[in-house]
Known about the structure:
By secondary structure, the protein is mostly helical. The protein is 87% helix and 0% strand.
Amino acid sequence: MDERELEAQIDQMRQTMQKLYLEDPHNPQVLEVSQSLDDLLNELTRRSITNKKK
């Protein structure tokens, strides 16, 4: 997955999390999606750091 695809996936995950939260803030899926989003954001950060070192 290239950086643009990763950013698109992050945007989609944010929208999903927001939709779930607005429907029911206590839905356990909100936490699951949030954690998945964190993983994607961490990956984007890692790639950014790696690219700056090159």
